[in-house]
Amino acid sequence: DMQVFGSDWTLDPTRILCPSSLWQGTADRIVPPVAAITLGQRLPNCTLHVIPDAGHMWIYGHIPDVLQELKATITAALGRNHTAHTRSS
What we know:
Layout: H1 2-6, E1 20-25, H2 33-42, E2 46-51, H3 63-88
Parallel strand pairs: 1-2
């Protein structure tokens, strides 16, 4: 994590147009919250979840939330693909 965080990125996050989701705990001592939040704000189609008082292992308390969002994202993507396929037929 520190190597990635401390290195220059050759990728411009503003060019990532696919839907994305970023989760960050405000009490994370490994990934600075400001870095993750700034990245989430720069991604054009990002849903940013800031979890108050959560540390680096926030996932263990939020697995149902993440899975629910993942399911919704996949369902929406399948719907978009079906609509696009139907229009091109």
